[in-house]
Amino acid sequence: VQLVESGGGLVQPGGSLRLSCAASGFTFRRYTMSWYRQAPGKERELVATITSGGGSTNYADSVKGRFTISRDNAKNTVYLQMESLKPEDTAVYSCNARGPGPEYWGQGTLVTVPE
């Protein structure tokens, strides 16, 4: 089983990034997928969730209207489109899979938005 995130990097305030999480080794289409983030010295925070079929999404209040979670079950990939980035969005972003089997986590990708 693997969840491999990509797309992180350094972006100026107001900029955009798209994160991807490629899944393998489990039945992706049966799993609810989420993005979490953890900033230095802070607790891990749930950012966004999308149900297995993609029909329902939820967002943390801090990112509503700026971030969009989506998935492509044919490609076993979940995305996080991030717009209007702020310094407080700086964190390691990890994807998570919850479903009929064990829970899975990716290693994370770092997003840095300088002051």
Instruction: Work out the helix count.
Output: 0
Helix/strand class:
mainly beta
> Could you tell me the mean pLDDT?
97
Q: What pattern of helices and strands is seen along the backbone?
A: EEEEEEEEEEE
Low-pLDDT residue intervals, each spanning 5 or more residues: none
- Please give the number of β-strands: 11
Rg calculated over all Cα atoms: 13 Å
- Say what oligomer this is: single chain
Main sheet attributes: strand count, strand direction, barrel closure: 7 strands, mixed
| Cα distance spanning the termini | 37 Å
Helix content: under 10%
Proportion of beta-strand residues = over 45%
| Rough outline | globular
List the topology elements.
Elements: E1 2-6, E2 9-10, E3 17-24, E4 32-38, E5 45-50, E6 57-59, E7 67-72, E8 77-82, E9 91-98, E10 104-105, E11 109-112
What does this structure look like?
The protein has 115 residues and is an all-beta fold. It is 0% helix and 50% strand. It has no helices and eleven strands. Strands 2, 4, 5, 6, 9, 10 and 11 form a seven-stranded mixed sheet that branches. The protein has a four-stranded antiparallel sheet with strand order 1-3-8-7, with no helix packed on it. The mean pLDDT is 97.
